[in-house]
Design goal:
The chain is mainly alpha-helical. It is 69% helix and 0% strand. The chain has 2 domains: 66 residues; 76 residues, no CATH class.
Amino acid sequence: MKKANIIASIIGMGISGFAFGYTFTFKKFKNVPVGPEFFPRALAVALFICCFILFIQNIILLIKSKKSNQADSKAPTLSLKDKGIQKALLSLALIVVYVILWNYLGFLLTTPFVIFAMICLLGKRTYFVNAIFAVGATVVIFAIFKFLLGITMPLGFMEGLF
């Protein structure tokens, strides 16, 4: 398990380095104090820090286990029968469909359904409350982006309405 974590942390640090470097290709805007590269860079730095901590922790555990002659435990295997894996794959599929439909149907039509589905997938079965929350969250997010931040969200075929 320790070796698997070390390998995963090295891969994660590599991905974060690539993502951080890629943000330098983003378009620069004049008179904008925080550009579009800020959030991806912050996420890349956070990923690097978490992976580095995982790397150091597992190097220390590996050294301690070598001193005490303990064998490295096997990493648990993933199974499609596991409910958590099924939910993760369903969430991934839902996000892929969301991204595909985003430009055609727009933010206002796709987002409430995705939020509702994700909430239900997490196990909350109060459908009326979930629906109210999904629609309310969509309206609040749309209003923040449109009126506070001045960023237009794709509206699909409703482009001329707002």
